[in-house]
């Protein structure tokens, strides 16, 4: 059974890679940027949420700047998209699937990181969600879109659910994530996000809005 720190690192790096691919693909499709823009937006999407989490937890400098692997994985993801964009863009709904993967993994690792640093259950759930949506929010702002967390149905909600499951499944009072709990939490978050996308499910919105206002 892997230790909690090793488990969090592995999940964090996988989520970083998934979000880097997502951010880079989004950059090419919506902003028409060059190689620097592709890699930069991919990296921001990949590590932005973790940086926000660590700053809020007072864990300075953030893990991104203490462990070279984060930036290396994020850069590799962006470069891979730049080189093979045509092939990757033909994969059906690849951006949405990668976004859901990154969302679910970061919800788990963000909550686990908060627990490791002494945060309570409520704080860990909130920080897990912030880790999951932070990078995508920065990406959307930079490409001139309304952030998905504010406009896309079932985006923040799956992150909160996944973080909550991870916290509930942590080992006793020491804040360590178990492998089974982490996998279940990520799978539930991923599933909710994909179901929401497939059926175009929306979080509750104010009543009485006109259709052209109520939609993106």
UniProtKB/TrEMBL annotation:
Gene Ontology CC terms, in alphabetical order: plasma membrane
Organism taxonomic ancestry: Bacteria, Bacillati, Actinomycetota, Actinomycetes, Nakamurellales
Record-linked PANTHER family: INNER MEMBRANE PROTEIN, UPF0126 INNER MEMBRANE PROTEIN YADS-RELATED
Domain Glycine transporter: 10-85, 97-168
TM helices/strands, residue ranges: 6-28, 35-56, 68-85, 154-171, 177-197
Family annotation (Pfam families): Gly_transporter
Membrane topology per record: Multi-pass membrane protein
Homology family: Belongs to the UPF0126 family.
Cell division is among the record's keywords: no
Protein name per UniProt: TRIC cation channel family protein
Entry keywords, A to Z: Cell membrane, Membrane, Transmembrane, Transmembrane helix
Principal place of residence: membrane
InterPro entries in UniProt: Gly_transporter
Transmembrane helix keyword on record: yes
């Amino acid at each position: 059974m892997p230790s909690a720190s090793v488990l969090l690192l592995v999940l964090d790096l996988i989520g970083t890679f998934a979000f880097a691919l997502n951010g880079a693909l989004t950059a090419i499709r919506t902003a028409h940027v060059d190689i620097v823009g592709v890699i930069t937006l991919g990296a921001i999407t990949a590590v932005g949420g973790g940086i926000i989490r660590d700053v809020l937890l007072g864990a300075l400098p953030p893990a991104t700047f203490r462990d070279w692997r984060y930036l290396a994985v994020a850069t590799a993801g962006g470069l891979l998209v730049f080189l093979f964009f045509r092939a990757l863009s033909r994969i059906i709904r690849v951006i949405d699937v990668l976004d859901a993967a990154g969302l679910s993994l970061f919800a788990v690792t963000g909550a686990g990181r908060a627990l490791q640093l002494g945060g309570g259950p409520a704080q860990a759930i909130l920080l897990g969600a912030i880790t999951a949506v932070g990078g995508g929010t920065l990406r959307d702002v930079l490409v001139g879109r309304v952030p998905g967390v504010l406009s896309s149905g079932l985006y923040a909600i799956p992150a909160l659910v996944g973080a909550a499951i991870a916290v509930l499944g942590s080992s006793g009072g020491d804040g360590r994530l178990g492998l089974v709990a982490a996998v279940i939490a990520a799978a539930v978050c991923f599933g909710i996000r994909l179901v929401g996308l497939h059926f175009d499910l929306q979080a509750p919105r104010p009543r009485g809005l006109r259709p052209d206002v109520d939609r993106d």
